[in-house]
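step: validate -> pass
step: tokenize input -> pass
step: predict -> running
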Amino acid sequence: MTDPRIIDYIRQNMGKYPIESLKQALLKQGYAAEVIDGAIAAVSAAPAEAPPMPDAPAAEGCTADGDTIVYSAGQLFANAKRLFQGPESFFAHLDPQGPFGPAVLNVLLWAVISGIVFGAIAFVGSADMFGKIAAVAQIVVFPVVAVVFSFIGAGVYHVICKILGGQAPFRGSYQVVAGISAVFPISAVASALPLANIVVQLYGLYLSVQSAAGMHKVGKMKAWIAFGILTVLGIVGSISATMAAKRLKELAAQGPAGVMSLPTGGPAEMLGDLQKFQEMPEAPADTLAILSPAGQEKLKAAWPGMSAPIRKALVETLPTVGDGERDEALERMVQVNQNMGQAMGAIQNLLQQQGTNPPGDAGGK
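step: predict -> pass
step: emit ->
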């Protein structure tokens, strides 16, 4: 009877050593020659085992099972290709419980590319040294800002989707934002063309609807209505900002700098100006003097909680408002400041709550 141990030994080593060497080694171990010859004959007569079938190649940007899209530096452009070719399928194949690390890396890489584009455009369009320094600084600053605001944007997007009946946790919403970051370079190029960002905003609307359907399983009609309203407001804001900037340039060219003129200093001067307002312990006396007694008390109470940009806008804008409208303008500015603070606080709380949810928790419901 042939010993199966000898058969296994010969089968495993016959490709490495001559058969005669294997036979001599077995003889030294005390096995009978006829038993060894029988095992060699059995191995030689048996058909060779077919090698195991290799795994099917995964689609670009997917795991080996071809089902879940993964973020990585090597898949950066493959994932972008999938996004642009089939947005809803792309978002549907994202992992709702995907880790933050690779997603943040995806945002960072696209932001670096966009920062280079922004910097190059600004560098070419800058005539003074401060402008060129600021242009180069964008290469470093933009990626940092993009990563920070990616979490804020994901928070806002997540809240909207939840209101619409979305099912995915916050991790899923951040996966969506990470995927959409592939649009950053397109937006950077569009920034150099008048009103070209409107086209980018419309494409962003389309991606928002597809992602809400693919990731959160939100009905497309509801998504079109909700995100469409926000996009229209954004487009109106873009047009208004473009027209206002054009008008301000005209005013700046007509006369000496005043409270409504464009800033003429470089980035350092602008930051220093904001720092000055941030460090003011109380509202300027000149600003208080043009308000009613009630308005003065209102401004004194609200001043400590105001951000530097709001303070600057208030101080520079109130003198241009009619006497009977200044208190109302102040009230609006105070309300804007409060709304901004509440929105940021709500998003921060949401992020903290989602961060404490275990990975298996549906989260965000």
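step: describe -> Residues 4-45 form one domain.
step: cleanup -> pass
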